[in-house]
Design goal:
Helices cover 50% and strands 11% of the residues. The protein has helices at residues 13-26, 50-60, 70-74, 76-87, 118-131, 139-156, 168-188; strands at 4-7, 34-35, 63-68, 91-96, 114-115. Helix 1 runs antiparallel to helix 6 (139-156). The two termini are 29 Å apart.
């Protein structure tokens, strides 16, 4: 059973690989404790149904990390994962790259988020340690891996592909539909 589910887009793979390594080595987690679909050996088994595998691992996880970038918001599948985490009432940790609005979107409206920086990553480690106490025992290891990750992150972030832009009118229509769906969901519960 994965402890952590990293919700991300494959367009951000060059930084997600490093982020996975930070969590695994910095928190002393086994590979099986982190689900990350774009990391070899930590994602979807060959021959398995993609959406079924995502659903099963999201449902089993204890913490869902939303790695929020422009590419994340441009991915309908990522936004669906965000909504599924909300619907499943998962413990969610929105992690926002610099330059992106801190409010993680319509589904998580008002939810506190953290930046991908020293403080945000330390807050994430604290959250993981609440679920996995062994993660808090190797502070020096975490600090070393965090510093290494942030150095590489700052180098790689400008290399991320830019998502296609959508027209503001379409965005406003989607926000309106999301708000209406949330109201309808509240009425049903």
């Amino acid at each position: 059973m994965p402890l952590i589910f990293i919700s991300h887009t494959s367009f951000d793979k060059i930084i997600i690989d490093d982020f996975f390594d930070l969590l695994q080595m910095g928190c002393d987690l086994r590979r099986e404790e982190i689900f990350c679909s774009s990391v070899d050996g930590a994602g979807i088994e060959t021959g398995k149904d993609f959406t079924d595998w995502i659903h099963a691992n999201l449902e089993k996880s204890r913490i869902v990390i939303l790695f929020l970038t422009e590419n994340y918001y441009a991915s309908r599948f990522c936004v669906a994962e965000m909504g599924a985490a909300w619907a499943l009432d998962k413990e969610v940790f929105p992690l926002v790259v610099p330059g992106i609005e801190r409010d993680p979107g319509a589904v998580m409206l008002g939810r506190q988020s953290a930046l991908v920086d020293e403080r945000g990553l330390d807050d994430l480690r604290d959250r993981i340690a609440r679920q996995y106490p062994l993660a808090s025992q190797a502070t020096s290891r975490w600090s070393l891996k965090k510093d290494e990750f942030l150095r590489r992150f700052r180098e790689k972030i400008p290399q991320l592909p830019k998502p296609p832009l959508i027209h503001r009118k379409l965005l406003e229509e989607e926000k309106k539909r999301t708000t209406e769906a949330m109201k309808m969901n509240e009425q049903l519960t």
